[in-house]
Amino acid sequence: MNAPSVRMPRVALVHDWLTGTRGGEKVLQRLLGLLPGAELFTLVHVPGSCTADIERRPIHTSWLSDLPGVRRGYRHLLGLMLPAAERMSVEQFDLIVSSSHCAAKGIGGRRDGQVHVCYCHTPMRYAWEAADDYARQLGPAGLALRAAGPFLRAWDRRTAGRVDRFVANSACVAGRIARAYGREAAVVHPPVDVGFYTPADVPREAFYLMVTALAPYKRVAMAMEAFAQLSRPLKVIGTGPPLGVLRRAAPRNVELLGWCDADTVRDHYRRCRAVIFPQREDFGIVPVEAMACGAPVIAYGEGGALETVRDAGAPHEREPTGLWFHPQTPEALAAAVERFDGMVDRIDPIALRRQAERFSPARFDEGFRAVVAPLLDERGWVLPWEGC
């Protein structure tokens, strides 16, 4: 009997937009390393905004990328992104891997026989759990976002049917996928560069630290209000449209540093007293980076933080790496910072590092390959996996 034929599939990697390097782009970079022959598709690309590993790949873009002012205005193109994604064609590819939190999973131009694996950072944030936050930020224009909610949710559900296998970045997101799409999802946590983010033999200082994009759901203003009640210093690394407004509103003990390179971020992780993480995140790479550098984390006890931060306030927690707080208010955060002073001696730097290593790139590679390999085997496909 002849052996079954084996062939190498053509692979398309689809990402919502390439306008900076945040958590989603770190996942994309790892996927590109795992799938060296994949071609990259995105709705909007701002050249030079991502890492060299991403920028050196040929990047296929939608017509949105040619619009004037797209570098600053892409956030306002949501109404155009959905049809733009459906007009992009990946018919010539066998395996589609989308890295999606908005429209990437809805890419069009598919044909029979293809396989689509979606690494879902969250169901469309603007249509579901963060819709009210974004509507408030937009002011009067937020009325349009609220009015579009039913359409956005319907599109998001409909295009979920184009996905053969969902992979969620956390158990939290797997639950959202089940509620929004009625689909199961495997959980493969994002890769965190624990080889770069490492402790150093430097003393801890008195300041607390936030590392975040300045989006409304990140709760930077709430953290500033909390620290206005405290005498402790807070430094915030990150940028976004509200940076100027936040700087003008900041109390004297809060410093907004804007964008910083990775070396500077790592240096702050190594020296801060603790990292503040007041948002409800899908996963949240920052707490893991912080713990890899030996920094404890004070986190809002919802979402991805429940999977990454081990709560010193839990009576049976033997290897705490930080502290959870409830509810999501300035007063609760301020109280948690004060409680942290009495608990910090319980937190072992070795436990911090051990917890961070659970989210290493090698773990991500292993988990993602385990999800995709059976789909390939069913079709007699092989991939030249790298990074594993």
Describe the structure.
This protein is 38% helix and 16% strand. The protein is of the alpha/beta class. The chain has 2 domains: 11-191 and 360-379, 3-Layer(aba) Sandwich (Rossmann fold); 208-357, Glycogen Phosphorylase B (Rossmann fold), CATH 3.40.50.2000. It has a 7-stranded parallel sheet with strand order 3-2-1-4-5-6-7, with helices on both faces. Strands 10-9-8-11-12-13 form a 6-stranded parallel sheet, with helices on both faces. Helix 9 links the parallel strand 9 and strand 10. Helix 8 crosses helix 13 (330-343) and helix 11 (285-292) packs across helix 14 (349-357). The longest helix has 19 residues, at 142-160. The protein starts with 10 loop residues before the first strand and ends in a 9-residue tail after the last helix. The mean pLDDT is 91.
The counted number of beta strands is: 13
- Calculate the mean pLDDT score and round it: 91
Low-confidence stretches: none
N- and C-termini, Cα separation = 33 Å
Q: Share of helix among residues?
A: 25-40%
Give Rg in angstroms: 21 Å
Order of helices and strands: EHEHEHHEEHHEHEEHEHEHEHEHEHHH
CATH topology of the largest domain: Rossmann fold
Structural class: alpha/beta
Tertiary shape: globular
CATH class of the largest domain: Alpha Beta
How many distinct domains? 2
Count of helix runs: 15
Level-2 CATH architecture of the largest domain: 3-Layer(aba) Sandwich
Strand order of the largest sheet: 3-2-1-4-5-6-7
Strand content: 15-25%
Largest sheet features: 7 strands, parallel
Defining key terms:
388 residues, alpha/beta, Rossmann fold, 2 domains, seven-stranded parallel beta sheet, six-stranded parallel beta sheet, 15 helices, globular
